[in-house]
Amino acid sequence: MNWNDLQRDLARGKLATVYTFSGKETFLKEKALGQIRSMVLPAGFEVLNETRLEDATFRQIREVAETFPVMSDRRLLTVVDWKPAFEGDSEITKQEVEALERWLQAPPESCITIFLMNKEPDGRRKATSLLKKSTAYVEFNQVSMAELEALSAERLADQGKTIDSKNLEYL
Fold this sequence. Notes:
The chain is of the alpha/beta class and about 170 residues long. The chain has helices spanning about 5-10, 25-40, 45-50, 60-65, 90-105, 125-135, 145-160, 165-170, and strands at about 20, 50-55, 75-80, 110-115, 135-140.
């Protein structure tokens, strides 16, 4: 799936339970994360229902994902650069991946989990293959000039500004 496919799904209100965001376009990954955040978390309860984990073990991921949301139907969990997707063939890494594989068969519906990859995951790793196969895997590749212009115009419009196409192209 790419950025445009995700946008179509979000516009229809269609959310997966588990996503993996990968690719070089950090701005688009953060924008998509913000869109999902606004769809999932009711205003005023974001702090209670959103968790961001870095250097997480699978046990920590499972515990947060299986925690019931507070005054909301769902919670949001973002797992940043999950290590088994990048490195190691240790016994611990293998156990983590096997546990994730079992968990992905029936992840809790009360949590939207996003594996946010800021670096490119190692495609040779079982963890990476598992995330590609078992989650809504979204690749945020470099956008075209037309998409970049549309995103820039949208961002300016959000701030109450306008720009003509000639100046936008210049930027």
